[in-house]
Amino acid sequence: MPPQGQSVGICLDDVILLSRLLAKRQPTAASDVAALFTRYDSLRRPHVTKAHKLAIKRFENVKDISWLAFKIREWFLWLVLLLFAKQFSAESEYDVLKEEL
Fold it and tell me: Against a cut of 0.85, is the pTM above it?
């Protein structure tokens, strides 16, 4: 999964969302559990897929890079962060607690 440590955040989002769904729906039959997991999957899959694609893209950008090129890129990272701060901020504003169940 993501090499930037996002995996822990994704796991926590999963636990929170699943516990919220279980608390709200309180499944009693197997069909209720199946419906609950279908709803869970429909809520989580877009976010996890997006994070996975982004992680692969980031990995592909650095996997075959030389040490010098990596260091140069590391120095320019600050400029990139300043230029794209609003985009990064928007991507990190997802709140699983605000997800409509």
Answer: no
Would you tell me how many other CB atoms lie within 10 Å of the CB of residue 94? 13
The 3-class secondary structure across 38-78, one letter per residue, is HHHHHHHHHHHHHHHHHHHHHHHHHCCCCHHHHHHHHHHHH
Q: Are 49 and 42 in contact (CB under 8 A)?
A: no
Asked whether the predicted pLDDT for residue 2 surpasses 70, the reply is no
What span, in angstroms and rounded, lies between the C-alpha atoms of 34 and 14?
Answer: 17
Answer whether residue 59 shows pLDDT above 90.
Answer: no
**Nearest of 91, 94, 99 to residue 40 by alpha carbon:** 99
Q: How far apart are CA 62 and CA 36, in angstroms?
A: 39
